[in-house]
Write a sequence for this structure.
């Protein structure tokens, strides 16, 4: 059977051997919530089954990424068809982080491998999953997202991409109140960990460039792009990561790390993107921000009603669209996704295709797009048809 590979960073506690773990659990790393492991997961999967899911109709286009994610998750849980390898670290505990050798950190080993993929003309998308997601399910979703987007990439005649998973200790439990509260607390703490990881990425990228714009030591710049996709409570992780980034960014602006940022089914307040909101500076992080929402998302309606949260961004979009930055585009998927839950529609059909079009560089008003302008006055609100 063919192999599928994703890279990962996690602040979950490992199971078994630290560098060759059997998986990762529901608690933070024993070394602290900000401690990150970096590694790679290899999964053997049936090419015919993958193709079958990619060609399934979901009522709004083809490609059933949700069932594909379930398939990959079950393979990971079985343990028979996957291999996990963490990048080893050689940290001198008597030295500060600044004084460590370049090869001391697993992050640098992973970044170096990702750089090779980017030099081979592959974009990279960082993926942060949401609430109630086990380690195996997180890997399954990341693999499904990678397969779906690369299937679309072939249709659009563009290069494939590589997905990098950030997995935080989401409870993986169906207990509606205790698990949600636990996950929200863990998401808040994990935001600091994601912020730390993004700062490591920023430093690695800066080292590839000299003051003159040339690269030191003859290192070749890949001229490919980094993207970010957050789902559900993964957006709350990002919200808390922004605070860490802002605290450790020189000057008045945060670094623009990403080309495209996708906020999907966001379990965060609907006013966070306003100038004084908790994510009011998100536009500094990317060239373009896309918010996908669904008014029939019962998972987020439960967050509103049973958890006592304000209206969610993923349910109805921004509370006051005229106040958000011009970089931010909102896409209303309510008319097409339908269904009972429809919380993971970013993996499916036309919505996934629309995400791939952004990665491919198509303008929001391109004729190939699957959405149309929702408001003739506002330039940044769109309706999936």
């Amino acid at each position: 059977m063919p192999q599928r590979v994703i890279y990962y960073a996690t602040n979950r506690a490992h199971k078994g051997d630290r560098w060759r773990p059997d998986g990762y659990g529901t608690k933070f790393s024993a070394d602290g919530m900000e401690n990150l492991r970096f590694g790679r997961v290899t999964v053997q999967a049936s090419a015919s089954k993958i193709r079958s899911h990619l060609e399934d109709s979901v009522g709004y286009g083809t490609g059933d990424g949700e069932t594909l994610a379930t398939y990959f998750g079950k393979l990971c849980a079985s343990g028979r068809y996957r291999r996990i390898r963490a990048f080893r670290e050689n940290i001198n505990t008597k030295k500060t982080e600044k004084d460590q050798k370049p090869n001391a950190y697993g992050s640098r080993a992973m970044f170096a491998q990702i750089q090779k993929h980017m030099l081979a003309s592959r974009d990279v998308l960082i993926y942060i999953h949401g609430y109630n997601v086990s380690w195996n399910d997180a890997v399954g979703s990341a693999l499904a997202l990678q397969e779906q987007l690369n299937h679309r990439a072939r249709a659009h005649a563009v290069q494939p991409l590589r997905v990098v998973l950030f997995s935080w200790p989401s409870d993986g439990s169906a207990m509606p109140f205790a698990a949600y509260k636990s996950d929200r607390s863990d998401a808040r703490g994990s935001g600091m960990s994601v912020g730390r990881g993004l700062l490591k990425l920023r430093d690695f990228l800066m080292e590839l460039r000299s003051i003159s714009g040339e690269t030191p030591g003859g290192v070749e710049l890949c001229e490919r792009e980094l993207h970010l996709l957050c789902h559900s409570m993964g957006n709350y992780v990002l919200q808390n990561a922004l605070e860490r980034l802002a605290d450790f960014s020189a000057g008045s602006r945060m670094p623009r790390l990403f080309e495209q940022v996708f906020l999907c089914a966001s379990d965060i307040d609907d006013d966070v993107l306003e100038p004084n909101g908790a994510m009011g500076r998100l536009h500094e992080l990317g060239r373009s921000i896309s918010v996908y929402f669904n008014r029939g998302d019962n998972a987020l309606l439960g967050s509103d009603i049973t958890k006592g949260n304000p209206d969610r961004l993923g349910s109805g979009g921004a509370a006051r669209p005229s106040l958000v930055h011009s970089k931010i585009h909102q896409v209303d998927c309510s008319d097409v996704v339908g269904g009972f839950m429809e919380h993971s529609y970013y993996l499916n059909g036309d919505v996934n295709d629309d995400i791939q079009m952004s990665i491919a560089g198509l303008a929001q008003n391109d004729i190939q797009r699957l959405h149309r302008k929702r408001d003739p006055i506002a330039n940044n609100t769109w309706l999936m048809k």
Observations:
- The radius of gyration is 20 Å.
